[in-house]
Design goal:
Layout: H1 2-26, H2 33-62, H3 65-88, H4 94-114, H5 116-133, H6 136-142, H7 150-167, E1 169-171, E2 174-180, E3 183-185, H8 187-205, H9 209-228, H10 232-250, H11 253-273, H12 275-285, H13 296-308, H14 331-339, H15 341-364, H16 368-392, H17 410-445
Antiparallel strand pairs: 1-2, 2-3
Helix pairs in contact: 1-2, 1-15, 2-3, 2-4, 3-4, 3-5, 4-5, 4-15, 5-17, 6-17, 7-8, 7-9, 8-9, 8-10, 8-16, 8-17, 9-10, 10-11, 10-16, 11-12, 13-14, 14-15, 15-16, 16-17
């Protein structure tokens, strides 16, 4: 009977995530706020049903009463988070908060299947991050002075990265984290945010050649320290984010083309200098040639994706634990194997929906500082998604980057809560300005 439930649940979960994804893009077709709210309400129903159905299967297979308690705690958290956002921020972006919660739910599901202990730790981190970052939209709406301190962001970020480079913990050949009081965290996840604020503040002041040169030098210093730390995934995110923000601020094709050429040259140099880079590139080019060593992770990922097919093996019916670091870098492979290729594609489309909202907010902002922040945060987010999924499916070499809100990792989760909080703040700021304008226009007409 349990096997029948698992088999039926596969298709039920796929159907629900497909409808949710369809509503995700239907939201952008409507300008009427009431229709958008109705779509968001339907999405919430689907999210809670999907979360419930998946945890029923997890409980039936594991027969662990702790899973029931974890499910109830997660459901209460998701309800509270949605309600608090609605109470505190009337003009919030409903689609963004929904997608954030949906990705968190999917992460809870797959991590609980992989390891109850990790899922519990992830949930506790998520709860703390949600509470701490709930005030960020309010801060963004009331503190214009954040545009006037670019060097606080720039120098602070460089110091953090330098500390990791000098005394950081080594993980898979790269220096990624530092430990304070027994707690380990990855500073580069947070420096991504200060980096975007630094670039936005500098270009808000001026886009003349001298200011661009100074900003480029500081950005290059960020990337160089990350390369020396062998954190090449983050280095690539910083580089592409800076290059695109520079182009948005200046509309100068020379800067863009020069930056791309410089990036290609730096990539070739890194390949020659760092064995860590050569190993990953060779594993990407032909993982089957060394399937028991450097090609093991990517081949197991491809096996998992191929085994899952379009509809998946079902929760607890696959073997995702055979993939090294499956809960972090390769969580997308676990989703593909057990929940199916269709489900995994819907996860990607939900991520794309988040990115579209980032770009829409960036396009609507009048102040260049806010426009660049929204654009830069959007680039950080979508590049992280691209690098994660691209590495899992062998589209690009693996970079060790996590899938936002889904992969296991406290620093990644916390930093993404900040990123989405900043975007919510900009969205609310714009909506409040539009309402003030309409109110003044109505009074003048009267």
């Amino acid at each position: 009977m349990i096997n029948v439930i698992i088999e039926v649940s596969k298709y039920l979960l796929i159907l629900m995530v497909m409808i949710y994804t369809y509503l995700n893009f239907s939201y952008f077709r409507h300008q009427d706020f009431r229709k958008q709210d109705r779509i968001c309400a339907y999405q919430n129903i689907l999210m809670f049903l999907l979360h419930f159905a998946a945890f029923v299967v997890l409980y039936l297979k594991a027969e662990d009463d702790r899973i029931v308690l974890l499910y109830l705690a997660q459901a209460v958290f998701l309800i509270a988070y949605l309600v608090l956002y609605r109470l505190f921020y009337r003009n919030r972006s409903g689609i963004l908060i929904n997608n954030q919660c949906m990705l968190l739910s999917i992460g809870f599901i797959i991590l609980t299947r992989l390891s109850f202990e990790k899922s519990l730790r992830q949930f506790l981190i998520v709860t703390v991050a949600a509470v701490v970052t709930l005030l960020i939209p309010f801060i963004m709406d009331h503190v214009w002075q954040i545009s006037g301190i670019p060097w606080v962001y720039g120098v602070g970020g460089l110091i953090l990265l330098a500390v990791v480079w000098m005394i950081g913990n080594n993980s898979f050949g790269a220096q990624l984290s530092i430990s304070v009081g027994g707690v380990s965290f990855q500073p580069s996840e947070f420096v991504k945010i200060t980096f975007v604020f630094f670039v936005a503040a500098m270009f808000y002041q001026s886009v003349n050649f001298k200011n661009v040169a100074v900003t480029t030098a500081v950005a290059a210093a960020h990337v160089l320290i990350l390369v020396l730390s062998k954190d090449l995934g983050s280095a690539l995110i910083f580089f592409v984010t800076y290059l695109t923000m520079l182009f948005v601020a200046t509309s100068n094709w020379f800067y863009l083309v020069s930056g791309l050429l410089a990036g290609c040259g730096a990539s070739m140099l890194a390949y020659r200098l760092f064995e860590h880079v050569r190993t990953r590139v060779l594993a990407w080019q032909n993982p089957w040639a060394d399937i028991d060593n450097r090609g093991y992770q990517i081949t197991q990922s491809l096996f998992a994706i191929g085994t899952g097919g379009w509809f998946g093996m079902g929760l607890y019916c696959g073997m995702p634990y055979k993939i090294p670091v499956v809960g972090k870098d390769f969580v997308f492979a676990a989703i593909s194997e057990e929940l199916g290729g269709i489900f995994a594609l819907c996860v990607l489309l939900i991520c794309l929906g988040c990115f579209l909202q980032f770009m829409l907010v960036a396009g609507k902002m009048q102040a260049m500082f806010y426009k660049l922040i929204a654009f830069g945060m959007g680039m950080v987010y979508i590049l992280q998604v691209f690098l994660t999924v691209g590495g899992v499916i062998k589209f690009i070499p693996s970079t060790g980057v996590t899938l936002p809100f889904v992969s296991y990792g406290g620093s990644s989760i916390f930093s993404m809560f900040i990123v989405f909080g900043v975007l919510q703040g900009l969205y609310i700021l714009k909506k409040d300005d539009e309402e003030d304008y309409e109110e003044r226009y109505t009074k003048s007409e009267g």
